[in-house]
Amino acid sequence: MSLKSRLLAAVALAACAAPAAAQYREETPAVAGYRPDMPAVNAAPAVADPDAGNHAVAAAFSAWSRRAGRPSILVFFNRQLIEDSASQYDTVTASAAAGVAERGAVVAGGHRLAVAGEASRAAVVAETRTYQQRANDGRYGFRDGLFTKAVESSVMNAFIGADARVMSREALIRSVSAARGKDDRLDIQHLETLALQKGVQYLVEILPDDDASSPTGVRFTVRVTHLPTSTLKASFATTGDPPRGASRLVAGRDGFERRAASSRATPELIGAQVAYDVMGRLR
Fold first, then answer.
1. What is the largest CA-CA distance in the chain?
2. What long-range pairs does 172-175 form, CB within 8 A, spacing at least 24?
3. Cα separation, 236 vs 40, whole angstroms
4. 147-200: per-residue pLDDT in tens?
5. Domain boundaries defined on the chain
6. At what angle do helices 169-177 and 188-196 cross, to 10 degrees?
7. At the topology level of CATH, where does 52-87+137-282 sit?
């Protein structure tokens, strides 16, 4: 056999053997991918709890409260302890016309009523009412509505959640008024003084004001008084701004940029934050 014939035979044999060799090649399992014995992706980092600091404050306050025998706390929200020891009343006179003569008819309560005779002779009935209005009730004059109620409820719930012994102003006043005469019950300031003597140890006054420069739109002036000794334990101001979450990287026009977390200033979280601020000064 010539050299040329031998070379052609060798090439043909190699061509036939190549598919057979490839057929028996050991393949890497598909599950392992290109990183054997490693997870498919890295585990996501744990998300930090923005309220972790407040939880720690509440736990420390709860421990202090237990050590102190769970002292009773009375919260005045949007109400302050004024210096007047007796209620003062103003006499108020209010008048309202029941009907107005108009071209042969009387308009009363939004309805047109026909009147007999000439319009100039139509009677217009006026109602005059005189009553007593309390002039010094201790209310602070903050806006009313759902916002106020939600903040107040959240303040109370935060204290209750921290195992605080929270007293009810209304229940205390009703309790002491039961043994008083009708005239004495009108003196709310005196009843309030008696109520504060019913075992209340800490009075927390939370006085809110609208504040456009505040991140929450409101600012709270807070006073904490130890009633048995008439000692002022804390006096401070807070916006009630709850802590924000961690900043995060987002894609921007010029690449990734760090963006701060959005505000969490809901009425519920604002109220809770005010309560945590108080707890941090009581323990």
1. 145
2. 172/74, 172/196, 172/198, 172/200
3. 53
4. 999 999 999 999 999 999 999 988 988 888 887 776 666 677 777 778 888 889
5. 52-87+137-282, 94-129
6. 110
7. Maf protein (3.90.950)
